[in-house]
TrEMBL record:
Residues 98-184 form the GHMP kinase N-terminal domain. This is Galactokinase. Keywords: ATP-binding, Carbohydrate metabolism, Cytoplasm, Galactose metabolism, Kinase, Magnesium, Metal-binding, Nucleotide-binding, Transferase. InterPro entries: Galactokinase, Galactokinase_CS, GalKase_N, GHMP_kinase_C_dom, GHMP_kinase_C_sf, GHMP_kinase_N_dom, GHMP_knse_ATP-bd_CS, Mevalonate/galactokinase. GO terms for biological process: galactose metabolic process. GO terms for cellular component: cytosol. Belongs to the GHMP kinase family. GalK subfamily. GO terms for molecular function: ATP binding; galactokinase activity; metal ion binding. Residues 293-365 form the GHMP kinase C-terminal domain. Its EC number is 2.7.1.6. It holds the Pfam family GHMP_kinases_N. SUPFAM superfamilies: GHMP Kinase, C-terminal domain, Ribosomal protein S5 domain 2-like. Residues 12-59 form the Galactokinase N-terminal domain.
Length: 386
């Protein structure tokens, strides 16, 4: 973040709370290159932290008084204020739960929290499937860990932030988003085994290969604390149970024929996506290492087809974005994130960025869809103190 932005945050903080913040922290959103809905099936994912961040200014309350949490956003709206004791999600506005939930999760862990004043700013578009919520959680988690000297590792913070999301916000998500935000590094994707939680940084030299990664935000927004996501988690759990394995991670491609015979058609298609997607992640990592990013396009597109036809989480806008990008010269394209809206990504030769963007905009206009937001991203650094 540039110094001007920090100065502006400091000014707004002082105007709201009548004092200067103690510190500033930033945590990125993410793009998931490939490996969708595999995280809660204990499989593989390959996200990267993007160069768009949630930033917080924070001041911890002195110990002694009644603990209270105040949260404000640079997007405006009133300061959200909640008494800390007996904090429940309903005590705060939905957007402020991503802040409050991390205080709550740390307390649940047996770590007493002070009250605090927090001001939030973000350049991660909301509802675009780029984990704007995890970015806030991770900025807050890192801030509390650092300012209170809790000594938690980043891997432990991932689980704290996931707990905030699962048990305070109520979205049964995996560890994909928080891992990308806290463990991501510039110029690399994060190859994560969601069972062992082993993470390997895989080079993603887009610029050196004259490539760009476009995000096409369809502006159809999604929410993971609503029905669709929960239903997918339940279908995967059922598929694993019926196949007699702890998680779908344990089902290899070779078992799909048998799976088709024993599972109900809808459960089978979901299982098929997870099983084939895990293999695509492994293939992508192998190809990246052997030949670089220019050759992974077909795997990205195959992942989209699998989400569209088998997992059933795409939508017309995402399909149009992917099909149009491909027709305009993308090497591969897919929806990214939880689905039901949000963003598609397109891997393109850098020189074609304008043409691909124009083609997608035109196609959306012709279909009378909202104008998409299109921008390129690069793998940026993970969460940090500013
Ligand atoms: C959301 C969840 C993640 C993951 C993705 C789908 O982003 O937060 O845990 O399940 O959807 O891959």
């Amino acid at each position: 973040m540039n110094p001007d932005a920090v100065t502006s945050l400091a000014g707004t903080f002082a105007a709201l709370y009548g004092a200067a913040p103690d510190a500033y922290f930033a945590a990125p959103g993410r793009v998931n290159l490939i490996g969708e809905h595999t995280d809660y099936n204990e499989g593989f994912v390959l996200p990267f932290a993007i160069d768009r961040v949630a930033t917080i200014a924070i001041k911890l309350q002195e110990t002694g008084g009644v603990r209270r949490l105040r949260v404000a956003s640079t997007q405006g709206g009133p300061v959200v204020e909640a008494a800390f004791d007996g904090l429940v999600p309903e005590s705060v506005a939905p957007w402020a739960r991503y802040v409050a939930g991390v205080f709550w999760a740390l307390e649940q862990q047996g770590l007493p929290m002070p009250g605090a004043d927090v001001l939030l700013d973000s350049s991660v578009p909301i509802g675009a499937g780029l984990s704007s919520s995890a970015a806030i959680e991770c900025a807050v988690g890192l801030a509390l860990n650092t300012q209170l000297g809790l000594g938690l590792s980043r891997e432990e913070l991932v689980l704290i932030c996931q707990r905030a999301e699962n048990d305070f916000i109520g979205a049964p998500t995996g560890i994909l988003d928080q891992s990308a935000s806290l463990l991501g590094t510039a110029e690399h994707a994060l190859f994560l085994d969601c069972r062992s939680r082993e993470a390997v940084h895989v080079q993603l030299p887009l610029e050196a290969a004259d490539l760009a990664l476009l995000v096409i935000d369809t502006r159809v927004s999604h929410a993971h604390d609503s029905g669709g996501y929960k239903e997918l988690v339940a279908a995967c759990t059922r598929g694993a149970q019926e196949l007699g394995v702890p998680a779908l991670r344990d089902v290899g491609i070779e078992r799909l024929v048998e799976a088709q015979q024993v599972l109900a058609p809808q459960i089978y298609r979901r299982v098929k996506h997870i099983v084939t997607e895990n293999q695509r992640v492994l293939d992508t990592v192998e190809l990246l290492g052997a030949r670089g990013p220019a050759v992974i396009g077909p795997l990205l597109t195959a992942s989209h087809v699998s989400m569209r036809d088998d997992f059933g989480i795409s939508c017309d806008e995402l399909d149009l974005a992917v099909d149009t990008a491909m027709a305009a010269g993308a090497l591969g394209a897919r929806m990214t994130g939880g689905g039901f809206g949000g963003s598609a990504i397109a891997l393109i030769p850098a020189a074609r960025a304008d043409d691909v963007s124009a083609a997608v905009r035109e196609a959306f206009a012709r279909a009378h869809y909202l104008a998409p937001e299109i921008f390129s991203v690069i793998p940026g650094p993970g969460a940090r103190q500013l």
